[in-house]
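Assemble and predict.
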Amino acid sequence: MSVLATPSVDNTRSRLVIDLDAIARNYAALQALTPKAETSAVVKANAYGLGAGPVARRLAKQGARTFFVATVEEGAAVREALGDPLPDIWVFAGYRAKDRPLYVKHRLGAILNQPGETAQFRAAPTGPCAIHIDTGMARLGYGAGDISGLLNALQNLDVSMIMSHLACSEDAASTQNLRQLERFTALTNALPETRLSLANTGGVLLGESYQFDVTRPGIGLYGATADLDADTPFEPVVKLEAPILQLREIDAGDTVGYGATYVAHSPRLVATVGAGYADGLPRALSGAGCARIAGLRAPILGRISMDLTTIDVTGLEHEIAQGAVPEFFGPDLYQAAALDGTLPYEILTGLGARAERIYKGAS
Ligand SMILES: *Cc1c(COP(=O)(O)O)cnc(C)c1O
């Protein structure tokens, strides 16, 4: 084994590079798929881990007028980032009277999920509200049996949207989709006429009958879908750049990493890079995933550790000498999710606790 001169990079910290222009192009692609509906933007969980402030600002510049978040605190952060009182920001979690001052101060829209929330909201409305009805997910929302009571509770309230959420939208063949569409149509026919919203990213891709007045895409904006078997129609928006901290040649029979799980069968050039599972690289990529250097594959050797990962850069000396930096995710996000037995959603929300964030196309 011998250590080679390290490339001349001073940076030892991983960088999460987020392409806001690519997010804006994905928004435009979603709009083009739904010419009759308003395309909103779901920026919950800090915009799926990518940074709610920069993402919401870029999407507002692109024309987004309606945003969705999970919690009141997320809504307040998005309003502060937007610095503009006009875009609507709706809160999925449901209304609690104790949060009224935050709803008013940040002009957040209350989504009423159940009778108790509507009663609290009626006592002192904060403005227009939305109603969430459950059509087959049994997670949040009014059930079919609550609808007659709901009609009374809505008297004198300004209802500006009725929404529901699809359980199986990533699977176009699932009969659950049509069942939910039929329930949504039947229940909303019994309620006051207002704007309707059913489709997340998968719902948008199911076609026009699912799109109604407002679509609610999240993952599509961030370059993926929930269907790992399909080609995503959206561009990758995020990559994790990991600096090369050390380079070494190893001989046949040498081992790499914790547990000595990788045994070289021929001489290899190994780069140790400064990113590990604490940076959001799933440990399940150990010995299975790859990085890219100037677009070329550099397989992960042995186990990913907390702060470091070892990759095979044999044959990539030229690219490294030119300053190319190893990158994870990007076009390999689906492969990473598949190897980790999860979805792009979970990978994205796990990124960047430590990485420096770099925004391309920030406004
Ligand atoms: C997260 C979420 C969305 C966005 O879903 P994607 O699959 O990311 O497009 C839409 N609506 C609700 C209610 C959600 O919780």
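The first strand starts at residue 2 and ends at 4.
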